[in-house]
Design goal:
With 296 residues, the chain is an alpha+beta fold. The protein folds into 3 domains: 30-129, 3-Layer(bab) Sandwich (Phage tail protein beta-alpha-beta fold); 134-222, Ribosomal Protein S8, Chain: A, domain 1 (2-Layer Sandwich); 223-293, 2-Layer Sandwich (Ribosomal Protein S8, Chain: A, domain 1). It is built from 9 helices and 12 strands. The strands form 4 sheets. It has a 4-stranded mixed β-sheet, with helices on both faces. It has a 3-stranded mixed β-sheet with strand order 2-5-4. A 3-stranded antiparallel β-sheet has the order 10-12-11, sandwiched between helices. Its main location: membrane. One of its GO terms (cellular component) is membrane. It comes from Saltatorellus ferox.
């Protein structure tokens, strides 16, 4: 069943639903200055919690967290290789990247007047409720999610040439974290409700559109298959960069013959969408890159 928050979003009038876009755009003011994270001084080394405090001071945002989550934030170093000074216009995205790398997500609690954000941990029992805080975005505005790697969003993707129930069943292996991800056919329509984190959700929507475009084309060379490949040694993002270069795949679009490589940093996996005739060769290439450790 749809979550109450998502069902409510889908039933809202158009002007109310699009209000979420303007709210999102104005929710994160540009910080008053750069943010410096210290790691080389044991007495003053930053934890995730001290980073949150610095973020609040620079942005004027008020932030809350459950006591269990706050304890985890205080115990979690930022884990940088050296001190880092983040330019003001990059503070928001970098702040979220570090939070998500440490298994935290950011959700708005109060979006007008004195704004209030909440940080939630993916390592506490409360994580089962995180998905209900997803922000609804219209499909044409989904690109906004890419700038927020620690926030959960939901949207509706229409796939006129695809059996959405069959596709959702086939893609279950993509759901590596049921607390932050969801694929849900919307009744008997050709639409699918998808939930996910930032850029991962954008990539998922792109993959679904690629599948639908392949179905519409009808040419055998565009019939693709998907497989989730976990890496042991290399870093998924690095391997995807090499694959994109090797096959001529642009980062924001599908490549030739429906090729798409989507990294999942949390599980160090790559979702491959490719013609069945080329999949085995691609898997062999990924295995070779993984064996050599593409990140080294």
């Amino acid at each position: 069943m749809l979550s109450l928050a998502l069902a409510a979003a889908l039933l809202l009038p158009q002007d109310t639903r699009t209000e979420a876009i303007s709210t999102l755009a104005g929710l994160f003011p540009t910080p008053s200055g750069p943010m410096t994270l210290v790691v080389d001084d044991p007495e003053n080394a930053d934890t995730c919690w001290s980073m949150v405090e610095k973020y609040g001071e620079l942005t004027g945002q008020h932030i809350t967290a459950h006591s269990d989550t706050q304890s985890l934030l205080m115990q979690s170093p930022v884990h940088l290789d050296r001190n880092m000074t983040i330019p003001a216009d990059e503070v928001q995205t970098t702040f979220e990247h570090i939070l998500f790398a440490r298994d935290f997500v950011l959700t708005p609690l109060k979006r007008d007047g004195m704004r209030l954000l909440e940080i939630q941990s993916l390592s506490t029992p409360a994580r089962s409720n995180i998905r209900s805080a997803a922000i609804f975005l219209e499909p044409e505005d989904l690109h906004l999610a890419a700038a927020h790697p620690a926030m959960i969003f939901t949207t509706v993707v229409t796939l006129p040439h695809t059996d959405v129930r069959q596709v959702s069943n086939s893609m279950r292996t993509m759901i590596t974290d049921a607390n932050t991800q969801q694929l849900l056919p919307a009744g008997n329509s050709n639409s699918m409700v998808i939930v996910g984190i930032g850029q991962s959700l954008v990539g998922l929507a792109d993959t679904l559109r690629t599948i639908d475009a392949a179905a519409a084309d009808g040419a055998e060379k565009y019939v693709t298959t998907m497989e989730l490949i976990r890496l042991e040694n290399a870093v998924a993002d690095d391997v995807v960069t090499l694959l994109n270069a090797a096959f001529g795949v642009e980062a924001e679009t599908q490549g030739p013959a429906g090729l798409k490589f989507l990294p999942d940093a949390r599980t160090n996996s790559i979702l491959v969408n490719a013609p069945a005739s080329r999949l085995e060769r691609i898997k062999q290439l990924i295995a070779a890159l993984d064996g050599k450790g593409a990140s080294k």
